[in-house]
Amino acid sequence: MKALWITFIAVATFGSLYPFDFDLAGPPGGLFRALIDAASASTSRGDVAGNFILFLPIGLFSMLAMDPRHGAWARFLRAGAISVAVAAALQLLQLFLPSRDASLADVVWNAAGQAAGAALAVLAALSQRETSPMRRRLGRAALLPLALIAAWLAYRLVPYVPSIDLQAFKDSLKPILNDPLDPLACSRDAAGWTLTAFLLREAWSGARIDRFLPLLLASVFALEILIVSNGIDRADLVGAAVATALWFGALGRMPRPEWALLALLAGTIAVGGLSPLTVRAEVAPFQWMPFSGFLGGSMYLNAQSALEKTFLYGSLVFLAQRVLRGRTRGTVVAMAFVGLIEVSQTRLIDHSPEITDPLLVLLASLAIFILEREDAARAAAPPAVQPPGPKPEATAPLAAAIRPPRARRQQIHATPDWASLDLTLPPSQHEQLAQLAESRGVSVAGTATQVITHSLERGSLGAKREPPGLDAPSARSAQAGPADASPGAREGQGAGGSIAITVRLRKDHLESLTRLAEGAGVSASEVAGAMIEAARARADR
């Protein structure tokens, strides 16, 4: 998470100091006078939205990057202090840039965006506690789908400023009757809401939250009516209706809708990037300066475009990696596809070909990698924590005199809520587990822990429920390899070419796994193998 935190700080720095035409002599009226002018400078609604959105991911990832052992309030205050210091430093440096106008109001909105991002991180952490009603009812939520959904909703609800003016409400609804249907906007909304339904299902595997898509649509439309400079038109309504019918009528019923969704999204991006398809006589210059399109014009439109592209390109990389079964392969194909569209724009009128969009795809791939690794780390067993006690340096002589034997020390340092389990898997299942581990960026043993934990949490813990893909009558024949291979070895080859690994499970999960094995009349290794095969099948879908 630190990499994403630093990356977004670098992006904010680049956007705030471009074009870097520093005048070291200082502002014309002196630094003190410039500070007074900056304190009283007003800001537009577009600047408010841009500065708020610019620091929102900084606040989110700063909270996720800090040590969770510190309290939430301590991390919140520390992240806020760092972000305010960065924002103030950027405005101070803008005093030495003749092309930029410094304003202390921007610092306030930067701080507001950071606080909103940090609050989202705190709410996400609270909802994932074992005692959280949402966690008990829906299970653990995946960060990546939630982040993509948040980008789409943030794009829809810019600039986040509500109004209580009745006339403003009427103006928000007038486009439904007065504006013609925009096919391009309609296709974009249809693709966006269809992807949102898919991401809702992916965020809580097995909970089918996508059933609440109509409720989410109604809520977003109501908020768009309330927010100033926002509203709904015919394209919004038609796009939402098409997405609802497409998802519940076809794609939502497919065992693996990623291929269809990728085709739908790629078509939407291509049509949006190439329309209007009017060829120019000469070749337009290609802009190699990153993010140049976001540094001029309306900050309101730039912020909205940045959020839209974050959602579209993030979803494109996410689906490409799923379909092509490879992080590098999916990223390269997505970058090549977007880059080809940008190169094609050099021969089209009313387009600005630049390197920004392929870089956004690369940045989205980095974010996906880090978020997936964070998801995997949250599901894996935590390391053993030494019980609290006196500081070692204060009691070193006493500790040396009463030091217990080695075996007893290991018991003292072990975490009482976790236990080790030796598994012996056939080579085919170990290969499936290795493939899952590679896609999640964690070790084979850590992936086995995730698979077993997730499979148990999908069912009713403690119940004698048959594991997926395994039943008592055919249990012995369902698995490859010897049924009673010894799990004594912790690593390496076992009997008949089987491979032994050691995983760490919570004690209640271990008890549930043992009851499942006893109820099916098989070993714990065979139950774990069935769970691995089921997880691999879900990953393929």
Task: Give a written overview of the molecule.
With 541 residues, the protein is an all-alpha fold. Among the domains are: 1-127, no CATH class; 404-540, no CATH class. It contains 22 helices and 2 strands. It has helices spanning 2-17, 31-40, 45-65, 72-94, 104-127, 133-138, 143-157, 166-178, 183-203, 213-226, 234-249, 258-274, 299-324, 327-344, 356-379, 396-401, 406-413, 427-440, 444-458, 475-478, 507-520, 524-540, and strands spanning 418-425, 499-506. Strands 1-2 form a two-stranded antiparallel ribbon. Helix 19 (444-458) crosses helix 22 (524-540). It is globular and about 85 Å long. The two termini are 28 Å apart.
Residue-averaged pLDDT = 76
Strand order of the largest sheet: 1-2
End-to-end gap: 28 Å
Shape: globular
Determine the fraction of residues in helical runs and give it as a percent range.
55-70%
Structural class comes to mainly alpha
Total strands: the figure is 2
Estimate what percentage of residues fall within beta strands.
Answer: under 5%
Total of DSSP H or I helical runs spanning 4+ residues: 22
Q: Spell the H/E element sequence.
A: HHHHHHHHHHHHHHHHHEHHHEHH
Radius of gyration: 27 Å
Low-confidence stretches: 381-416, 460-495
Give a quick account of the main beta sheet: strands, pairing sense, barrel closure: 2 strands, antiparallel
Compose a concise summary of this entry.
The protein has helices at residues 2-17, 31-40, 45-65, 72-94, 104-127, 133-138, 143-157, 166-178, 183-203, 213-226, 234-249, 258-274, 299-324, 327-344, 356-379, 396-401, 406-413, 427-440, 444-458, 475-478, 507-520, 524-540, and strands at 418-425, 499-506. With 541 residues, it is mainly α. It has a two-stranded antiparallel sheet.
